[in-house]
Amino acid sequence: MGLTDKIHKIAVIGAGTMGHGIAEVAAYSGYNVYIYDIKQEFLDNALNRIRWSLEKLHSKRMIREDVATIMSRIKASLDFEEVVKDADFVIEAVPEKIDLKKEIFKKLDELTPPHAILATNTSSLPITEIASATKRPDKVVGMHFFNPPPLMPLVEVIRGRETSSLTMRTTIELAKKFGKQAVTVAKDVPGFIVNRILLRLMSSACWLVMSGNASIEAVDAVARYKLKFPMGVFELADYSGIDVFYYVATAMAERGTEIYECPLFKEKFEKGEYGVKSGKGFYEYPSPGKYVKPEIPKDAGEDLNPVYLVASAINEAAYLIAEGIANKYDIDKATMLGLGYPKGILRYADEFGIDNVVKALEEMARESGMEEFKPHPLLMEMVEKGKLGVKSGEGFYTYPEFEEERMENIIIRYEKPIAWILLNRPDKLNALSPKLLSELSAALDKIEDNSDIRVVVITGVGRAFSAGADVNAFVGVTPFKSVIFSRRFQELTNKIEYFTKPVIMMLNGFALGGGMELALSGDFRIASELAMVGQPEINLGIIPGAAGTQRLARLLGPAKAKEVIYTGDMYNAYEALEMGMVDKVVPPEHLEEYTRRFALKLAEKPPLALLAAKYAIQFGLETDLWHGEALESALFGLTFSTEDFIEGVSAFLEKRKPKFKGE
Ligand code: COA
Asked: Distance between CA atoms of 141 and 164, rounded to whole angstroms?
């Protein structure tokens, strides 16, 4: 029985930006939700916003249940007692005022059943202090959602001083039921993971500008183009509100976090230039409230080494690890899902080299005289021990040796005996252009001839495996050219299906349309919990053209395949697993390691017997039992002609591990 099985009614206190979003998530996840606020107008507004958002998600096929059914699970009320009296789980999302929160928690403690867990969605206030207003501090927990809750996949779950393990586990499980990735913050530190890391980044950005080392544009160009963050640092401050960062930084400083009070932010804050919402911040926005991407020239950051921008954030991550506040996986997950970075902050650290990070910090500490930039002892220790990151094979993570070959849209990583093929067009969600497909085909040819490689893994860089055929390539194309494109793409999928080495598809994110068809041609599909799969072609007025109608029907049976193709719906990883579209679902932070271990296991097996098994199964699927069996016998006989057969039998008799050569 799951820990959340007894949660039937959820109460959300506060119907503002976060509250209404959280109520929406709970409702579309199947829970009955009561939502409370102090004015009818706030409640009406919240319900309207929820309906609008649900309709949007529905039209994007991200939820399948109809909007009215989901709405029927939400009750809005001005009666606090009615809302909370039989709630099993309460999420408070009122303004960030400690006295207000304490007053609410006191009332919650009095009015909710004794088993109810009371969560606060604070981003800056101490959980422990909020919990002190109750007689059940063991059942009080931080549950920090990101804005907007329906779209942001991350929840930080924070342990107050007295929060019990059971409360933590139940809250994490509930976050998962909400379709979110939860990270554990084991100590109640201000800013938790994401805001602490972000504020260090902001303060480095600010210091770089104030010290004359870089311009605002240079910093943002480095963030956008070199680090590949979704936005520049100052651009993000404008986008989310300079006032918001100012308040969070001030709240953290008040609670004892050593943090640079940035004159740039202070000045903007005092002038009321908050960013997008006021029409002006670090950049200008012609219509206040409407975000337009600021023009930032690509070469503006040419002279700025990106390590200076991220070093302090890495330092903060080291602190979080050393103090037992968060583990490396959760820190990286939080930076990827909370901030939208293409990789975790500790992966950046390993790629820059820990020695270079330390050097940058020392330089910044020296020049600025600020404690904040002093390298954390954990980083110094790593340098001493030679754990420098990718270049030394070990940093925060370990790195097997590999060689890389880069094409325009594909990277081949030779990590003997595995070859990783990375679809590398992350800006376009790895949309499959004719160029990318021909490079993929060429990559497979190279790997085919390489006897050191026993297993192939295909995956995508960034947040998608592949969002399908490049829709831009469809514009103005003639029907005949489409037939040819379809045939060539099908040939590629056949090449993969009958490839002489096992092919694992590692679905790291969206696998849609042609992306899903590509995935279907592999021997296995291992999906991250974040993967979303589907065949959305029908929504464009077309049908799958890379054997999706054929392979999906063979895999799922005709009715399920028709459902997927006719509706064009998207399925999350667990739904896909239940239907049989993927074979395994793994948390995102363990996806690569799980896949590597599985690939290595296959790599130990006799390659020719693997090939024989593959052919017997694949060709057999296309024929009747009699012919399939005849093929099996022939291939069975053929395996007796291999040296690997002699090795396999000898090793068995000698009680040792066989070493297969593929001969
Ligand atoms: N072809 C070409 N470009 C694509 C693409 C495709 N199949 N899928 C995504 N992209 C591009 C987008 O145009 C966008 O580029 P831009 O930043 O230059 O505008 C970028 O990738 C990011 O996609 P975006 O739509 O902004 O991301 P999102 O998170 O809002 O939505 C998806 C993600 C996957 C839901 C959405 O991109 C989508 O529906 N893609 C098309 C899927 C499809 O129909 N595939 C079948 C094609 S036959």
From this structure: 9
